[in-house]
User: Fold this.
Amino acid sequence: MGVTAVIGLQWGDEGKGKVVDAFCQGADVAVRCQGGANAGHTVVVDGKRFILHLVPSGILTENVICLVGNGVVVDLEVLRGEIEEIGRAGLKTSGRLVLSTKAHVVLPIHKRVEAIQEQKRGDRKIGTTKRGIGPCYSDKCARVGIRVGDILEPSTLAEKIGSLCGTYRDLHNDQPVSSIDENLEHCLRHSDMVKEIAGDAGSLLRRSVSDGKEIILEGSQGFLLDVDHGTYPYVTSSSTGIHGLANGAGLAPTEIGRIVGVAKAYTTRVGAGPLPTLMEEPFQTEVRERGKEYGATTGRPRRCGWLDLSAIRYACALNGVTSLAVTKLDTLSGLEELKLCEGYDYGGNFVNAFAGDLHILKDCTPRYVAHPTWGEIGNLTDSKDLPVAASRYVERMLEAAACRLELISVGPSREQLIRVGR
Ligand code: IMP
Assistant:
């Protein structure tokens, strides 16, 4: 199959971890490409729940080599904790994990600055995960960031950190930010781990492609949080779509043969920003509890909305999605009512593509259609056994996605997965 990319089509938390885990059975290499510890990929293996923030979900499958690509921003503390936890679960990371020397390092100062920025935004705050993601990517683009490779050169590291901290001191002279020593000490504390796992992840990946290996690119967040195409400014600071994955892995886009879009059967959003199809009560609470819709990274309750077909249409079109993975279809089982957003009324017209621009989206009103409900489906393993209503619901998603169906997830465990023939 070559290279498969897995991307989220909504506002994150689509269940990509489980889908990636399914594809990793039989894969050789798994790659995290963008984002950082703001992500929380949940995979349940043999009843044990793993939440991975930085290490690719492929680590849970024996023999899969895991790469943290150049496009990721790395919190070394989180990475160390994760490696230790994986080790405690009896899984090997040694020799299986490579961290790109080009990846940028999230420093204590980034988290501090983010807290100040959010506080200053007042009621326009973004509701970030407070993982320092935005400031770290800002420094990357301003060409003053610290890369993993810099930690391997202690002679120049202090000077680089000194100049970075100096910039922030000047900007935030009214607030205590973070000292040079604190940031330097942070890097040096983790330098042993960095020495062990840092390497040229991009070359290794390109060699694996040439050797015909099976490769999984693991997307983080969702396309509606993309810094260009999402609901800006209520987005994350990376390109969460296919373009960001290719770039963040260090691979030519033309090498990606299969692009799997992951869509949850309903919509959720955590943090600020519009969710036009927000469910009314009691549906929202019911779906949140049934679907355990609480942030894997921050524990915040997620807002829950009806499925937005126009968002799926938009995300699939911009990413060239070749197949669809539908997740959490079981969460909707037994709901008293169900409806779908087919598109929006805007300026007296019906538009069926999502407006990835708040200036337009604020004047859009969702247009819904009622959909029949269905009962429990958590034990099904064949799509032919799905109730007609559930099957028709998935068909509606496929019409919007304009691609074939690949998977349907009907529960949290590895086994609760309906695979549809290629
Ligand atoms: P940041 O990525 O921490 O800067 O947060 C920016 C926005 O993206 C906030 O609304 C977050 O809640 C959201 N966000 C970031 N990462 C994730 C994720 O993995 N799942 C869902 N939302 C996310």
Observations:
- The chain has a mean pLDDT of 95.
- The first strand starts at residue 3 and ends at 8.
- The chain has three domains: 3-101+197-260, 104-192, 263-419.
